[in-house]
Design goal:
The complex is a heterotrimer of chains A (279), B (378) and C (178).
Chain A (H helix, E strand, L loop, with lengths): L22 H14 L7 E5 L14 E4 L5 H11 L4 E7 H5 L3 H10 L3 E7 L2 E2 L5 E2 L23 H8 L3 E6 L3 H13 L3 E7 L3 H7 L5 H11 E3 H4 L4 H4 L3 E8 L5 H12 L12
Parallel strand pairs in A: 1-2, 1-3, 3-4, 4-8, 7-8, 9-10
Antiparallel strand pairs in A: 5-6, 7-10
Chain B lengths: L2 E7 H11 L4 E4 L6 H10 L6 E4 L3 H13 L4 E5 L1 H17 L3 E7 L16 H6 L8 E3 L4 H18 L2 E7 H5 L1 E7 L45 E3 L13 H16 L2 H4 L2 E4 L6 E5 L3 H14 L4 E6 L1 E3 L3 H10 L2 E6 L4 H8 L6 E6 L8 H6 L4
Parallel strand pairs in B: 2-3, 2-4, 4-5, 5-7, 6-7, 11-12, 11-14, 14-15
Antiparallel strand pairs in B: 1-8, 6-13, 10-12
Chain C lengths: L1 E9 L4 H15 L4 E8 L7 E9 L13 E4 L2 H7 L8 E5 L12 E5 L1 H9 L5 H12 L5 H11 L4 H16 L2
Parallel strand pairs in C: 1-4, 4-5, 5-6
Antiparallel strand pairs in C: 1-3, 2-3
Helix pairs in contact in C: 1-5, 3-4, 4-6
Classes of the chains: A alpha/beta (279), B alpha/beta (378), C alpha/beta (178).
Chain lengths: 279, 378, 178
C-alpha cells in the first residue's frame, strides 16, 4: 500500500504557508489520493500557477511545471494533448483560476480537456498581503477594499458548470475525507474536472473580517456547508451564504483529445515522422 | 533525399518547414498577416499525427506550446506584432524554464492594431527586450520563401540545441510573397532534437538544469518512464527547485545570457551580395533585403561599387561580420521598415568612423530600390 | 532576361489565379525560370480593385513589386486608369474591349480583345476570360511554353477534370487569336 508520504518532498518542509492556512490540507489530500490510487509518479504531471497555493509543487515528488500567474490551465492543455496518457493535475488559487486566468478556465472547461483542476479558494490574494480577488465576497474588507468590497464575487463551481465542465465538486478544509474523495473522483473522470477546495486564510482574510482563528474559520465553513443533493431542494434565498459541497456536476461528454484523435486517424497519411501518441 | 519544387507563399513554406523539422504541435490565435500558418498547421498536422489547437489568446497559446514541448513534442506558434506583444509573458517563461519552441512573428505595422495588413520590420527591439529581465534570445529573419522553409528547420534545430524559445521574424511581404521554392526533406543528420540524459543516470543524480558551465543540460520529456522532470519560471537551482538566494539569482541570469551569447558564432548566419569590393555597403534583413539586392544591381550597372551584408540571424547580432563591414566600407546604409532600430545597433559597433546612413520606411509599403539609392544622394 | 507582368481588374475576375498559373508553370515546368508573385486587394473579396504582380526571370528575383510593367492585363476600367500613366512605349497592354476604353494618347502597345464575350460564347459564363487572356499573352510574347501552362492547370486543379478541361479550352482559344 502506497503512503501519501511517498509522493512528498519532506526535505522541503517546513512549508511556506502561514500557521493555520488551509492549503496544507489540500496538499495532503492530493498526495493521499495519489497514494490511494497507487499512481506511478511518472504518470502524473502537476502544473501550478502563482500564489500561495501555486507553491504546492515545491513539496511534491512528481513531474512538475510551475508557470506564470493564471496560465497553468493553458500550459496543462499543451501537456495533456501532447501526452494524453498522463494524469495532468492543475493547482491554482482563486487568483490564478478565476481572476487573472478566468478566460483560460472557461475555455478549458468548454473544450473538455482531460485534466483535473484543483482550486484552493481563500477569498483573497494571501501571498501579496490580502488584496481582493474575483471570489472575494461583497462587503468584505481586504487590504485593497478597506471600505468594503463593492464587487459581486464569482461562484467558481457555477462558473465552471456554465462553461461546460463535466465534473465539478466542492469540499472544505474542514472535511478532508470528502476532499480526497472528490479529488479522486476528478482524477478518475475522463474530461475536464474541477474541485474547489474552500480554505481559510486566517492571516489576511480572517483577520480583516474578524473571523477569529483558523479553527473558528473552519467551524464556520462547516456550519455553512450544505450537501449538493440537499441544496437541489432548496430555494435561492435558503442557499444565500451557504457553501454547497459534494459532487455538483458529473456527466459524460467526449474530451478534446478523443475527438481530435479521430481526426488524426482519418487524416493520417503516413506512419513515420513521429507522433504525439507515441511518447 | 526527397526534393520538391513549389510555387507558394512564405507562410505556407513555414508550415512545410515545421513539419519537416519534426514539429507536431501548434497552439495559436489567428491574426493577419500570419493566419495562413495557422490554417496550414490545422490542415497538415493531423495528417502527420500532430495536433493543432486554437487557443483563446496569444498568452495561452504560448503557455500551451511550452506544455506540449515539455511533454517531448516539438511545438510552434505563429502570430503578428500585436499578438507577439501578448506572448512576451510566457516567452519569458520559456526562457527561464529552458523549454524549446519556435515563435513565428509575421511583423506588421504598429503600435497597437496599426495598419493590420501592412508590412513593417519594427519588432527588432521587442524581440530582443520584450520579455522582462536579463536574458538573451535567438531570432532569425527570412528574406525569401526558400528561407521560410530552410530557416524554419534551422529555427527548430537551434531551439532544441540551446533549449530555448527561438523567434522567427518574418514580415507581411515575405509571408504573403509567392515564389519558386525547392523543399528538400532534411536527412536525419540535419535535424537536431534535444539531448537526452544518460540512460543509466538515476533520479538522485539527475539534474534538469545546470549552471556550472555555459553548455546546455539534457531535457527528458515529462511522462518518460524513468526520470521525473521539474521546470519552473521561478529562479531555481539545478534540481529545478525554487532558490531565490542572491548567488543563485546571479548565476542563473548570467547563464541564460551566456549560453546564447558565448555560442554566437554557432548561431549567427549572414549572407553577402557583391560585398567583397564594396565601397558602399548595405546592412539589412528580412523583406528589405529584396529591395536592397535590386538597389545593388542598379548601382553596379552605374559603376558604383555597392554590396550588401544580410543579417539572417538578427539576435544575437552578428557583431563580427558587422564590424568587418564597418572597418572596410566608407559608407554603410541600413535599409529597414522602421525608424532605425537596426541602425542604432550597428552604430554601437562603429569604432571605425564609418559614415552610417539610414533608409527607413514606415508607411506600410515595401521600401523601394530607388528610395534606398536616394539615401546616398541626401 | 526578366519580364514584369501586372494582372489587374476587380475582385472575382480570377487574376490571382492567372498569376498562380504563370508562377506554377515557370517554377515547376520550365527549366531554370524563377517567379515571384505579390497580390494586393481590398478587404472585400469581390468587386474592388485588385492587382497581381508577377515577375519571371532566369536569375533570382530581388524587389518583387512592379512599378512600370513590361506586360499588363487590364480587365476593368478602374484598373486601367490606375496604371495608364505608368505605361512605357514598349509596354504591352492587353485589355478587354467590353470593359475598358483605352485613353487617348496613352503610351504602350495596346491589344484589345472581347475576352468576356468570348468566354460567355465558349463556356457559357464569364469565368474563363482570364484564361483566354493568358492564352493571348503567351501567344504574343513567349513567356512560357504552352505545355508548361497546360501542366500548371493539371497541377493547380488536380482532381477537378472539368475545370482543367475548361481552362485548356479557353487557353487554346487565346493561343489561336491574332
Amino acid at each position: 500500500m502506497a503512503d501519501y508520504k511517498d509522493y512528498m518532498l519532506f526535505d522541503k518542509l517546513p512549508h511556506t504557508w502561514c500557521a493555520g492556512c488551509g492549503d496544507g490540507i489540500v496538499l495532503q489530500s492530493i498526495a493521499a489520493v495519489f497514494a490511494e490510487m497507487e499512481l506511478d509518479k511518472h504518470d502524473i504531471c502537476l502544473v501550478s500557477g502563482i500564489g500561495c497555493f501555486g507553491r504546492v509543487d515545491d513539496y511534491l515528488d512528481i513531474n512538475c511545471m510551475h508557470v506564470t500567474h493564471g496560465r497553468a490551465l493553458p500550459a496543462a492543455t499543451g501537456i495533456a494533448l501532447a501526452n494524453p496518457a498522463l494524469h495532468v493535475i492543475v493547482t491554482m488559487g482563486d487568483g490564478d483560476s478565476v481572476t487573472i486566468g478566468g478566460n483560460h478556465l472557461i475555455h478549458c472547461a468548454r473544450r473538455n480537456i482531460d485534466l483535473t483542476a484543483i482550486i484552493a479558494n481563500n477569498y483573497n490574494y494571501g501571498q501579496t498581503g490580502g488584496q481582493y480577488s474575483g471570489t472575494t465576497p461583497t462587503d468584505s474588507i481586504t487590504s485593497t477594499s478597506p471600505y468594503g468590497h463593492i464587487e459581486q464575487e464569482f461562484d467558481i463551481c457555477r462558473l465552471a458548470e456554465a462553461a461546460g465542465a463535466t465534473y465539478v465538486a466542492r469540499a472544505t478544509a474542514f472535511n478532508p475525507v470528502q476532499m480526497r474523495k472528490l479529488i479522486r473522483g476528478g482524477i478518475e473522470h475522463k474530461g475536464f474536472s474541477l474541485i474547489e477546495c474552500m480554505v481559510q486564510c486566517p492571516t489576511h482574510y480572517g483577520r480583516y473580517n474578524r473571523q477569529g482563528e483558523a479553527a473558528d474559520m473552519m467551524k464556520m465553513m462547516n456550519a455553512r456547508s450544505i450537501p449538493a443533493e440537499k441544496a437541489k431542494t432548496m430555494s435561492a434565498e435558503e442557499l444565500e451564504g451557504r457553501i454547497v459541497t459534494g459532487v455538483i456536476v458529473n456527466k459524460n461528454r467526449e474530451d478534446y483529445y478523443t475527438k481530435y484523435k479521430r481526426i488524426i486517424d482519418a487524416q493520417r497519411i503516413r506512419e513515420e515522422g513521429g507522433s504525439v501518441n507515441e511518447n | 533525399m526527397k526534393s520538391q519544387k513549389k510555387f507558394i507563399e512564405g507562410n505556407e513554406a513555414v508550415v512545410d518547414g515545421a513539419i519537416a523539422a519534426g514539429a507536431r504541435f501548434y497552439a495559436g490565435y489567428p491574426i493577419s498577416p500570419s493566419s495562413e500558418i495557422a490554417e496550414g498547421a490545422a490542415r497538415e498536422l493531423p495528417r502527420y499525427g500532430g495536433i493543432y489547437i486554437q487557443m483563446e489568446d496569444e498568452i495561452s497559446s504560448m503557455a500551451a506550446l511550452l506544455g506540449a514541448s515539455l511533454a517531448g513534442v516539438k511545438s510552434f506558434t505563429a502570430t503578428s506584432s500585436p499578438g507577439f506583444s501578448l506572448m512576451q509573458e510566457n516567452l519569458g517563461l520559456g526562457i527561464m524554464s529552458e523549454i524549446p519552441a519556435v515563435i513565428f512573428n509575421v511583423q506588421r505595422s504598429g503600435p497597437s492594431t496599426g495598419a493590420a495588413t501592412k508590412p513593417a520590420q519594427a519588432d527588432i527591439m521587442q524581440a530582443r527586450y520584450g520579455a522582462h529581465g536579463d536574458h538573451s534570445i535567438i531570432a532569425l529573419s527570412p528574406s525569401s520563401v526558400q528561407d521560410c522553409y530552410d530557416l524554419t528547420i534551422t529555427a527548430f534545430n537551434l531551439a532544441e540545441k540551446y533549449r530555448t524559445p527561438v523567434l522567427f521574424l518574418s514580415d507581411e511581404v515575405i509571408g504573403h510573397l509567392r515564389e519558386t521554392v525547392t523543399e528538400t526533406e532534411p536527412g536525419p543528420d540535419q535535424i537536431f532534437s534535444r539531448i537526452q540524459p544518460d540512460p543509466d543516470i538515476s533520479q538522485k543524480d539527475f539534474r534538469p538544469y545546470g549552471y556550472s558551465s555555459d553548455s546546455v543540460v539534457p531535457m527528458p520529456a515529462v511522462g518518460n518512464r524513468k526520470l521525473l522532470m521539474r521546470t519552473t519560471g521561478s529562479t531555481h537551482d539545478e534540481k529545478g527547485e525554487f532558490s531565490p538566494n542572491p548567488q543563485n539569482i546571479d548565476r542563473v541570469t548570467h547563464y541564460l545570457t551566456n549560453k546564447i551569447e558565448k555560442n554566437a558564432e554557432d548561431i549567427t548566419i549572414t549572407r553577402t551580395y557583391q560585398l567583397d569590393d564594396a565601397e558602399i555597403a548595405f546592412i539589412t534583413f528580412g523583406c528589405s533585403v529584396r529591395s536592397t539586392i535590386s538597389a545593388v544591381d542598379i548601382l553596379r550597372a552605374e559603376g558604383v561599387r555597392a554590396g550588401m551584408l544580410q543579417l539572417v540571424t538578427i539576435w544575437p547580432m552578428p557583431e563580427k561580420e558587422i564590424r568587418a563591414v564597418l572597418a572596410k566600407a566608407g559608407t554603410v546604409v541600413v535599409p529597414e521598415m522602421n525608424l532605425g532600430q537596426l541602425a542604432g545597433e550597428i552604430r554601437k559597433f562603429n569604432d571605425y568612423g564609418c559614415r552610417i546612413l539610414q533608409a527607413n520606411r514606415t508607411d506600410g509599403v515595401l521600401i523601394t530600390p530607388q528610395q534606398i539609392i536616394n539615401t546616398l544622394e541626401d | 532576361m526578366k519580364t514584369e507582368i501586372v494582372l489587374c481588374g476587380v475582385g472575382g475576375q480570377g487574376l490571382i489565379s492567372v498569376g498562380e498559373i504563370i508562377g506554377l508553370a515557370a517554377s515547376l515546368f520550365e527549366e531554370r525560370l524563377y517567379a515571384t508573385m505579390t497580390a494586393s486587394y481590398g478587404s472585400e473579396t469581390r468587386g474592388t480593385f485588385t492587382k497581381t504582380d508577377v515577375i519571371l526571370s532566369d536569375q533570382p528575383i530581388g524587389y518583387p513589386n512592379i512599378d512600370s510593367p513590361d506586360v499588363i492585363l487590364c480587365l476593368a476600367q478602374v484598373a486601367y486608369e490606375r496604371y495608364k500613366d505608368k505605361f512605357r512605349d514598349d509596354t504591352e497592354v492587353y485589355y478587354d474591349t467590353d470593359m475598358v476604353i483605352p485613353a487617348e494618347g496613352a503610351k504602350g502597345k495596346h491589344f484589345g480583345y472581347a475576352f468576356r464575350t468570348m468566354s460567355i460564347e465558349t463556356t457559357g459564363n464569364t469565368q474563363a476570360a482570364n484564361t483566354i487572356a493568358l492564352g493571348v499573352i503567351i501567344h504574343h510574347r513567349h513567356l512560357l511554353h504552352k505545355e508548361a501552362v497546360m501542366k500548371a492547370f493539371a497541377h493547380r486543379f488536380a482532381g477537378r477534370d472539368q475545370i482543367i478541361a475548361i481552362n485548356e479550352k479557353a487557353f487554346g482559344l487565346g493561343l489561336s487569336l491574332e
